[in-house]
Amino acid sequence: MNNHKIDYKIYGDDMQFVEVELDPNETVIAEAGSLMMMEDGIHMETIFGDGSGGGGGIMGKLFGAGKRLITGESLFMTTFTNQGQGKKHVSFASPYPGKIVPMDLSELGGKIICQKDAFLAAAKGVSVGVEFQRKIGAGFFGGEGFIMQKLEGDGMAFVHAGGTIYKKELAPGEILRVDTGCLVAMTSRVGYDIEMVKGVKTALFGGEGLFFATLRGPGTVWVQSLPFSRLASRVFAAAPGGGGSKDEGSMLGGVFRMLDGD
Questions:
Q1: What is the pLDDT of residue 21?
Q2: Among the listed residues 43, 32, 36, 39, the one whose alpha carbon sits nearest the alpha carbon of residue 15
Q3: Given strand 88-93, what is the order of strands in its sheet?
Q4: Nearest residue to 54 via CA among 104, 117, 127
Q5: In whole numbers, what is the pLDDT of the chain averaged over residues?
Q6: Which range has the worst mean pLDDT, 2-11, 26-35, 77-86, 189-198?
Q7: Among 61, 106, 131, 213, which has the highest number of CB atoms less than 10 A from its own CB?
Q8: Cα 262 to Cα 239: distance, rounded to the nearest angstrom
Q9: What Rg value do the Cα atoms of the chain yield, rounded?
Q10: Which CA distances in Å does 39 have to 23, 76, 83, 86, 87?
Q11: pLDDT one-digit tens code per residue, 48-81
Q12: Is residue 22 a contact partner of residue 91, using CB atoms and an 8 Å limit?
C-alpha cells in the first residue's frame, strides 16, 4: 500500500512523547497542536482532509474533511516531511498524563477503531475516518463511545490514552463491559454495543454513569484507567468556584472559607 514506513522511539513515563525518524521524503501526519519539536530540514504543511493522501480530487478531500468535522476534530491536519539530507526527527507530545500506544496496522488487520480524541500521529497513507455504530441505542446513548474514529492502512499509528493502559485479548464470544470513557481502541472484529446499567439506584448513585460499552470477541481491546473527561471533572470540582471546596473540606479549608467570608 501507500503508507510510509517510519521508525520511532517513545520517551518518558507518564507524560510521554514520541520521536519519529524520517528518511528523506518520508512524511508523518499529526493532529494540529501535537508538535513538540522538529529538526531542521523537515517541512511542515497544513493539509485539508484526513491526511491519507488517497486522491479523489476536491470531492474526496471535502468528504475526508467532513468526516473529521463530525468527530469534533479540525478540518485540517499537519504533515511533516523530511526534505533534507539524511535522517531527521520530529516529536509529538501527549496532551495530558497517560501513555502513547504504537499500533502497527499491518499486524492488526489494517484497521483500528478508537475514541475520537485518541489519535495523535501516523505515517502518511493512514486514513483517519469515522466509525458509525449500526445500532440506534449505541448512537443515542453511547456518550463518549458513540462516534469513534477508524484508522485504516498498513502503516504505523500512535494513539494516546490517559493513566494506565490495559491491553486485553478477547476470545471468540468473550464479553467485556467497559465504561464508555475508558474504552481507547479495539480491532475491527470486536463487536460493540451499549448496555444500560441495571437498577435505578446504581444508575443514580453508583457514580459510574448510565451506560457500559459491551465488547464481544474475538479481537484486541485497549482500555485506559483515566479518561480525560474524568480528570477534567475532578479538576473542575476542586477548583475555586468549580463546585468543590478549598483543601478538600479539611479544617484548614474551613478557616480559609471563614476568612474569605464564605
A1: 97
A2: 36
A3: 7-11, 17-22, 88-93, 35-38
A4: 127
A5: 78
A6: 189-198
A7: 213
A8: 15
A9: 21
A10: 13, 23, 11, 11, 10
A11: 765 555 545 555 555 555 555 554 555 678 999 9
A12: no
What is the rounded distance in angstroms from the CA atom of residue 215 to the CA atom of residue 230? 21
| pLDDT score at 173 | 95
Give dist(CA 7, CA 77) in Å, integer. Answer: 21
Class at the top of the CATH hierarchy for domain 7-246: alpha beta
List, in order, residues 6 or more apart from 222 with CB less than 8 Å away: 101, 159, 161, 165, 166, 167, 168, 184, 185, 186
pLDDT score of 111 more than 90: yes
49 close to 77: Cβ distance less than 8 angstroms = yes
pLDDT of residue 215: 94
- What pTM was computed for the model? 0.77
pLDDT-based confidence at residue 144 (cuts at 50, 70, 90): very low
Report the 3 state secondary structure along the chain: CCCCCCEEEEECCCECEEEEEECCCCEEEECCCCEEEECCCEEEEEEECCCCCCCCHHHHHHHHHHHHHHCCCCCEEEEEEECCCCCEEEEEECCCCEEEEEEEHHHCCCEEEECCCCEEEEECCCEEEEECCCCHHHHHHCHHHCCEEEEECCCEEEEEEECCEEEEEECCCCEEEEECCCEEEEECCCEEEEEECCCHHHHHHCCCCCEEEEEECCEEEEEECCCHHHHHHHHHHHCCCCCCCHHHHCHHHHHHHHHHCC
Q: CB within 8 A of 27, min separation 6: which ones?
A: 4, 79, 80, 81, 82, 123, 124
